[in-house]
Design brief:
Layout (H helix, E strand, L loop, with lengths): L16 E7 L2 H13 L4 E4 L9 H6 L1 E6 L3 H10 L6
Antiparallel strand pairs: 1-3, 2-3
Length: about 90
């Protein structure tokens, strides 16, 4: 992983973003992201809901919780501690 960057020590241009898990709702994704943030793990969510215009599409495919590849193992441990399913 490349250290540094123009915007401080947290820019990760060369690191892949991977799916940690998939949950049914944005609320659940937000709760997981908040728990990860409490452990200093950056995460984000993504869903196929046409930019929010068709939220019902997310119910079919779920909401993805995404993390940087180097944080995947630590994030999986957090999910295990919460007794949540991993992908």
């Amino acid at each position: 992983m490349r250290q540094g960057g123009k915007q401080g020590g947290d820019h990760r241009n060369d690191e892949a973003i991977v799916e940690l898990t998939r949950v049914p709702t944005q609320i659940e994704a937000n709760a997981i992201i908040a728990e990860l943030a409490g452990k200093k793990i950056k995460a984000m969510s993504g869903s196929d809901d046409a930019g929010g215009w068709r939220p019902q599409l997310a119910y079919a495919n779920g909401v993805r919780v995404l993390v940087f590849e180097d944080d995947l193992e630590a994030a999986q441990r957090v999910l295990r501690d919460l007794s949540l399913p991993e992908q």
